[in-house]
Amino acid sequence: MRLRWLFLSLFVLSVLVVPALAQDGNTVTDDEVNEVAKKLYCPVCENIPLEYCGTAACDDWRYEIQLQLEAGLSEQEIVDDFIARFGDRVVGVPQDPLLAAISMIVPILMIGASLLAILLLGFRWLRNRPEPTSVAAEPTADASPYRDILERDLAG
Amino acid sequence: MLAEIGFLSLILSIVVAIYAIVVSVYAERTHNETLALSGRNAVWVNFAFMALSTGMLQYALVTQDYTVAYVWSVSSPDMPALFRWSAIWGSQAGSLLFWSFLMSLFAAVAVWLNWHSQRRLMPYAIAFMMISVVFFSGLTLIYENPFERWWMTPTGIDAMGMQEYDVISAALQPPGTVEPSNSRLAETAKGLNPLLRHFGMAFHPPALYLGFVGFLVPFAYAMAALASGDLTRDWIKASRRWTLVAWLFLSLGLILGGRWAYDVLGWGGYWGWDPVENAAFLPWLTGTAFLHSVMIQEKRGMLKLWNMVLVIGTFSAVIFGTFATRSGLVESVHSFARSEIGFPLFFFWFSLTLLGAGMILWRRSQGLLRDEHRFTSVFSRESLFVLNNIIFMALFVAVFWGSFGAPITSELFLNTNITLGVDYFNQVTPPLFLALFILMGIAPLSAWGATSVSRLGRALLMPFLLTLATLGLFMLNGMTSIGALIGYGIVSLGGWVAIYETFRGFQARQRVHKESPLASLRMLFARNPRRYGGYMIHLGVTVIGIGIIGSTLFQQETQQTLSVGESLSLGGYELRYDSFDGGQITQDGRILDIANVTVLRNGHEVAQLRPRRDFFPNGDMSTMTIAGAHSTLENDVYVLLVGWEPITAASVTFKVYINPLINLIWWGSFILILGTIFATWPKEIIPARTREALRTGDPSLAAARGA
Fold first, then answer.
1. Cα–Cα distance measured from residue B581 to residue B595, given in angstroms and rounded to the nearest whole number
2. Which residues pair with B584 in a beta bridge?
3. What is the rounded CA–CA span in Å between residue A106 and residue A151?
4. How far apart are CA B219 and CA B215, in angstroms?
5. Do the Cβ atoms of A133 and B419 come within 8 Å?
6. Do the beta carbons of residue B245 and residue B680 sit within 8 Å?
7. Residues on chain B touching A118 (C-beta within 8 angstroms)
8. CATH superfamily of domain region A25-90
9. Rounded to whole angstroms, how far apart are CA atoms B542 and B538?
C-alpha cells in the first residue's frame, strides 16, 4: 500500500515537473522571434514584413519561427527553410545569383553608365572649353511686372 | 433620381469634353477665334457637368442613399459624418470619378487664369487636358460606374407562396424590377475600409490626387508648345507655377500618407518602400528635378530638350503609377483588387508617352529645342543643377527598378516571382540621397555662368563652420557613431546654407532700408518669394533628413509580455502595464480593447498611454491597431497592443519603439509646405480690369495705375 502511494506520488510529481522543465527550457523571447521575422515577408499581404503583419497566417509563421528557435535552429537556417518551402517571395532580395544580380546590379550599372557619360561629356567640354564669360549678378531690383505683357503685345 | 442625374451629367461631360477637343484643334488650325472661344467655354461647361455628377454621388453618400451600390459598398449608418464625406474616394469607382472631377477643375482654372497670357498655347493645351478628362471619365462610365443602383428582380414563388427576388445592380432600372428598401439595404451596408477611418485619410487621398492631377496642366502646356511650335519661354513660364502647385500637393499627400502609416499601420514606421508609395514618389522625383532645371532654361535658355522630357515624363509617371496601382500590377497594401481597367490604363499611358516622345523628336529634328548657351564652368549653378537632375534620375531608376522593373522582368522572362523589399532600397538609395544633400549645400552658393572653386569655398565657409558646431552639439549629447555624424553633417550643411543666405539678404535690407527686423523679413520674402521660399524648402528638407537619420539608425524596439503592475525598460524609459479596458463599444459600432500604460523616466511619470485594438463587427469584421505614443522633439515612445490573455487580460503583450527625432520629420514637412506656398505666391496680383486695360491699350490705364 505504501509502495503504491509512493509510485503514485512519483507519477504526480513527474507530471508536474516535466512541463515546468519544458517552461524553463523555453528561453526564446519575442524579440528573438521578431529578429528573424524582420528578414521575411508576409505570404498573404505582399511587401509587408512578417514582423509587422497582423494576419492569422503571419501569427502562425511567427509561432513556427519560435518553435524552430526553441529547437536550436539558427536565424539563417530558419530563413533558408522558409525559402525552400515558400520560394523567394518570402525574402526581400532574391536568392538565385542571376536574379540577385539582375535586381541589385542593374540599377547600379545604369547609374554608373550615366555617370560615365557625364564624365565623357565633361572631358569633351574641357577640351573644347570656351573662354569663361562673367555673367552680371542677378539684378537686385525687380523686373517690371508688365514686361511679359508688353513683350507679348509687341510680338502681336 | 439623383444617381440618374449624376450618371447623365457624367455622359454629358464626356460629350462636351470631346467637343472641346475637336473645336479647339480645328480653331487653332483655321485661326477661327469664335470657335476657339467656344472650345474654351466648353471646358467650363465640362467642369459644371463633372461638378454636378460628383456632387450627386457626394450627396448620395451624405444622405445615406444605400440604393446606390457604391454608397452601400463604402458607407454604413454608424459611420461618422467626416468619413461619409471621405468615402467618395473609398473605393475604385468613386475615386476615379473624383480624379476626373479634379482634372476637369484644373483644366477650368488653367483656362480661366491663363487664357489671355498664354493665348497661343491655350487651344492645344485645352485639347490635351480634355483628352485626359475624356479618358478618365470614360473609364469611370464604362468600367467602374459609381451610379449603379440596386434593383430587385423577381425570380419566382417559394414554397410559402412568397415572391422571391434576386438583387442586381444597373445604372438604369431594368424592366420588371423594383427598387429595394433603403432601410433594409442600410442593415447590410459594408462601411468604409477600417484603414481609411482615420483623420489623415480625409486629406491624404485628395492631396495626392491634387498632386497627380496638377501635373496635367504643365504637361498640356508642354505638349501644346510642341504642337504649336511656340517653344519660347512662354510654356516654361506657364508651367512652372502649375508644377509648383502640383508639387506642393504631392509633397503634402506623401507626408500625410507617411503620417497615416505611422498612426494606423502599427509598425512604428512611416515609409515602407511599398510599390504604391513608390508609384507616388516617382513623379515627385521627376517633378523636383524639373523645378530645378526649369530655372536653367529661364535664366540661360539651356536644357530645353531635357525640360520637355522631364515635364512629359512626370505626367507619364503619374499615369504609370495610376496604372500600376489600380490594375493590381504589383500587389501592395494599397492596391485595389485586379480590375478591368488595367489594359485601358496601360494603353493610355503607352499612347501618351509615345506621342510625347514622338513630338519631342519631331521638334528636335527641326532645331527648335536647341540651347541658347553652353556650359562654361564645372562649378556654375547650371552645371550643379544638371548634376542634381542626374541624381534625381538615378533615384528614379533605382526606385522604379525595385518597385516594378525587377519583379515584372523576372516574372515575364524568368518565370519567377521576386520581391525587392526594404533591404534593396536601403542599400541603393542612401548614397544618392546623401549626394543630393551635398549638392543642396553647394549649388545655392554658386553663380549662373561661372563660379571659381575659391569663390565657392569662401561662400561655404560660414555654413560649414555652423555645421561643425551642430555636430559638436550632437557629440555633446552623446552621439559617437561616425557614420551618423557624417550623415548629420552632410544633411545639416544644406539647412545652414539656406539659413545663412536668408540672413545675409536680411542683413543687406536692414543696412539699406533701415526697417524693423520684421518688416525686413517680410519684404525679403515678398520681393523674391521664389528664392527665399526655395531656401525655406531646403531648410524643411534638412530637418526631415535629420529626423529620418535619427529614427532609422537609432530606433530601439522590444516586445514583451507583462502582467498587471509589471514594467519593461527601453531607452531610458520604463513602461508599466496598469490595467485593461476590454469590449468598449463606440457610437460608430467599433469594439475597442484598450490597455492602460504609464510611461516613466528617471522614476517620474511622463505620460499615460492607451494603445488599443479596434474591431469592426460590421462589414468585413477586420481589426485595426492604434498605437499609444508620447511625443517630444527628442523622440516618440510608441506602444502597440499586440495581444492579451483572453477574458482576464492578466497579461498583455506590448511592442514598444523608441523613435529618436521622428517628430522632426513632421515639423520639417510643415516648413517645406510653408516654403512651397511662399515660392508659389505671385509677386503681384494684377486686377482683371487692369490686365484687360493693358491688353487693349486703354488710355484710362494711366488713371487706373495712378500715374
1. 6
2. B592
3. 49
4. 6
5. no
6. yes
7. 387, 390
8. Cytochrome C biogenesis protein (1.10.8.640)
9. 6
Chain B from 528 to 587: CB within 8 A of any A CB: 528, 557-561
Domain locations along chain A: 25-90, 93-125
Other C-beta atoms closer than 10 Å to the C-beta of B287 total 27
Q: Among all chains, which residue has been given the C-alpha cell 525687380?
A: A142
**Cell numbers given for B290:** 524639373
Beta bridge partners of B651: B563
Is the Cβ pair A34, B559 closer than 8 Å?
yes
Average pLDDT over residues A63-90: 91
3-state secondary structure of B687: coil
Which tens digit of pLDDT belongs to each residue from B129-171?
999 999 999 999 999 999 999 988 888 787 888 777 788 888 8
Contact map slice: B 332-361 vs A, CB within 8 A = 332-333
The sign one gets for the Cα dihedral B191, B193, B195, B200 is negative
Beta pairing, strands B604-609 & B591-601: antiparallel
DSSP structure string for B48-66: HHHHHHHHHHHHHHHTT-T
Measured distance CA(A37)–CA(A80) in Å, rounded: 13
pLDDT tens digits along B269-327 = 899 898 889 999 999 999 999 999 998 888 888 889 999 999 999 999 999 999 988 87
> How many residues in total does chain A contain?
156
d(CA B303, CA B345): 31
Which phi and psi (to 5°) does residue A90 adopt? -85, -5
8-state DSSP, B618: S
User: What's residue A130's pLDDT?
Assistant: 56
Among B39-53, B338-352, B616-630, name the one with the lowest average pLDDT: B616-630
> Are B652 and B577 in contact, with CB atoms under 8 Å apart?
yes
Residue B64 CA to its chain's centroid (Å): 29
Spatial separation of the C-alpha atoms in residues B584 and B613, rounded to whole Å: 10
- With cell 467650363, the residue in question is B44
Residue B331 in contact with partner chain A when CB distance is under 8 A: yes
Q: State chain A's mean pLDDT as an integer.
A: 72
How many other C-beta atoms can be found within 10 angstroms of the C-beta atom of residue B395? Answer: 25
Mean pLDDT of B516-529: 88
Residue A119, number of CB atoms within 10 A of its CB: 10
Q: Quickly state the pLDDT bin for B701 (edges 50, 70, 90).
A: low
Which H helix or E strand runs over B606? strand B604-609
CA angle B167, B170, B175 (to 5 degrees): 80
Contacts of B97 (CB under 8 A, 6+ apart): B10, B53, B54, B57, B88, B140, B146
Q: Which of A24-28, B138-142, B453-457, B580-584 has the lowest mean pLDDT?
A: A24-28
Mean pLDDT (chain B) is 88
- pTM for the model stands at 0.87
